Amino acid sequence: MITNTQNHLLNQMQALESMAKGQQLQPVGNPDQGPDFGELMQQAINQVNETQMQASSLTTAFELGEKVDLSQVMIAVNKSRVSFEALTQVRNKLLSAYQDVMNMSV
């Protein structure tokens, strides 16, 4: 299920891709509607940070002998790892798109 925010992000990425290919931009919707790309990235970074902090606190609690299931700790750690890797891949794609745009001749 794709949320409205994810849909907006996909639309912006497709617009960037068409710009990089030199195609005309097609209006996708009202550009004033919804958060901008920077806000979406900041939200994603904050979510990844929150996931990592939760995994860290569960790991610490488990190490201190508090009543925390090992399965909860492992799930939280893997969830934070996967979310960080996804964020890293998005960053890499954005850098690649930026470099493509900057290398275009005008």
Describe the fold and architecture:
With 106 residues, the chain is an all-alpha fold. It has a domain at 39-106. The chain has three helices and no strands. The protein has helices at residues 4-20, 37-63, 70-102. The termini are far apart. The relative contact order is 0.11.
Backbone shape: elongated
The residue fraction in helices comes out at over 70%
What is the CA-based Rg, rounded?
Answer: 19 Å
| SS field, number of helical segments | 3
Reading the helices and strands in chain order gives HHH
pLDDT under 50 segments (min length 5)? Answer: none
Distance between the termini: 39 Å
Overall average pLDDT: 82
Please identify the structural class as seen in this structure. Answer: mainly alpha
Tally of extended strands? 0
**Largest beta-sheet details:** none
Strand content: under 5%
Briefly say what this structure is.
It is built from 3 helices and no strands. The chain is mainly α and 106 residues long.
